[in-house]
Amino acid sequence: MIEVKNVEKSFGEFKVLKGISTTFETGKTNLIIGQSGSGKTVLLKSLLGIHTPEKGTIAFDGRIYSNLSESEKRELRTEIGMVFQGSALFDSMTVEENVGFPLKMFSNKSAEEIRERANFVIKRVNLENANHKKPSELSGGMQKRVAIARAIVNNPKYLFCDEPNSGLDPKTATIIDNLIHEITVEYNITTVINTHDMNSVMEIGEKIVFLKEGILAWEGNKKEIFKTDNQAVVDFVYSSELFKKIRKAQHKEKE
């Protein structure tokens, strides 16, 4: 569990996060959503320790990050997996080498142990027979699977995903969403996903945090978001491309 209490973050005189308080639950897919400029990326980077809030605390299973020593912070980082927006794979490495890289860098495992663990998670994300391929030989969806495998290779307690469906077609995006959800439940991970994709909200939005202009304007789940009378949420949901298509289809049915 990650607990966020009264977090504020500014850049110069511009306050981006304005007293955010929420909880990201273990074993669930927690989504941060909102318009561009709402503060969701800054919140994600604050959770990762990239940004340091001026006020408030972020606690990982009771461990307040700002109170940790440098060695304790390094230890905590070994418990974190990250899926980047552009996958961020090493072009010169094979799938197996990309996935095993965190173990090579941050563990004392032997080359054989690294290879075995890498193969295990590669199979878990359904990429058998892709071990020796380079990223350039893979589709966008396959590259995201490699990124997920690399993120979980070290058995993280916390998984962060930045726009994991960026650049993917709807069908592939749904597959990636479901894979992230399956892994979250299977390994009981606290997963936090920064997204603007309403498909993801509908598929895996077990806990949704909606930000507007740096304020936590609403939180709930994928069922509650369609029942809320919060106007900011309503405007966000029904301005999405997904719901434009749904409304268009409904209009055609009535004709």
Please describe the topology of this protein.
Blueprint: E1 2-11, E2 14-24, E3 29-33, H1 40-47, E4 55-60, E5 63-64, H2 70-77, E6 80-83, H3 95-106, H4 111-124, H5 140-152, E7 158-162, H6 170-187, E8 190-194, H7 198-204, E9 207-212, E10 215-220, H8 231-238, H9 241-254
Parallel strand pairs: 3-8, 3-9, 6-7, 7-8
Antiparallel strand pairs: 1-2, 1-4, 4-5, 9-10
Helix pairs in contact: 3-4, 3-5, 4-5, 5-6, 6-7
Radius of gyration, taken over Cα atoms and rounded to an integer in Å = 19 Å
The N- to C-terminal Cα distance equals 49 Å
H/E series: EEEHEEHEHHHEHEHEEHH
CATH-wise, what's the superfamily of the largest domain? P-loop containing nucleotide triphosphate hydrolases
Report the β-strand fraction as a percent range: 15-25%
Number of helices: 9
Question: Shape, please?
Answer: globular
How does the helix and strand content classify structurally? alpha/beta
CATH topology of the largest domain: Rossmann fold
Q: What is the arithmetic mean of pLDDT?
A: 89
Report low-confidence residues grouped into runs of 5 or more: none
Please give the CATH class of the largest domain: Alpha Beta
Strand order of the largest sheet: 6-7-8-3-9-10
Helical residue percent? 40-55%
Question: How many structurally independent domains?
Answer: 2
Largest sheet: 6 strands, mixed
CATH architecture of the largest domain: 3-Layer(aba) Sandwich
